[in-house]
Amino acid sequence: MEESNKNQLEKKEEELAKLIGFQVQVVEKIEAGLNKKEQTSPDELYLCGLQEEAINTSLSDFYEILLRINELNHAKEIVICDIGASYAKMAFVANHFFPNIRVISIEPVKERIDYALKILNNTKHIFINDIFKEELIKNDKIDYFFLYFPVGKILDEIIPQIDAPLIAIESHGELLNRLGHSFSQKKKLTKLVFPRHNPHSYIFSHKEETSLYKAFKALHNKDDDLIIINDQRPWLADSEGLEHYFDEEDKITLELKCPPRTIHFSDNLKTIKSSELDTNVQEIISMRREGKQIDGCFIRKIFVDGSFELSSGVIRK
User: Fold this and answer.
1) Integer distance in angstroms from the first to the last C-alpha of the chain?
2) What's the pLDDT tens digit per position in 8-64?
3) What's the rounded Cα separation, in Å, for the pair 192 and 171?
4) Can you give the pTM of this predicted structure?
5) Are the CB atoms for 63 and 93 separated by under 8 Å?
6) CA distance 224 to 236
């Protein structure tokens, strides 16, 4: 982004913040305080102190999103549940510009939600200090959910509880791809004012898991300790330490720990218990897990037929 354009956007954001009573400097001080605390699960929740722009959508983008939602619904009464609301910027914008929109802001970090509650306490908006659970909104009819959230176990627990169209923007490069595996329809909603990894907000609807994601969950839930990688010559990888990513649309990337490899998940992957294999193969698997060497080389791929590949590229039987 050109410096002059960036400065104009930042100036507009500052003016908007003043207009609606959102105190950016106060928020920055709160985040600085959070940064000094010991926080846990940084990959699952935005708990640690962060730059203000990193933990939330801009006020300008919230305005554009709510404006578009308002247009689509012909200015009728709307309830939006903001999951991981941080300082509840959506509620600030709705409170000033859209009297027909009520926002339920749910945020696990108490200091953040308390800030919004202190200023917007006497409004129709609701503020909840918690991780999202559907029981928190059981008395409300939700028209839309909004999500700006890191990919992880907590997100996986949230998605099945969503029962209305979901508005989302990219957080760290994987969220939209992950949601694409749980919803069959995805449409652009607005073009974002401030630059992001993906320049649009989207609306997801018709909750339905892809066959690829269903197969991945089935494999991930098995307790077998080995995965059979079906290359031209099938080989064995440890399931322990397996990491997965949604860094490509319509794909799931697997990062294997033993041996270290990155592959794309496919629904023909199978698992097996090492105890079911020949004792000689079990011995080679144990040696690989313990990091033992043969002729000064580490064991990499172990093939289903019992042969194995060394880090030198040599294949032994």
Assistant:
1) 57
2) 999 999 999 999 999 999 999 998 898 887 555 445 555 554 454 555 689 999 999
3) 13
4) 0.89
5) yes
6) 12
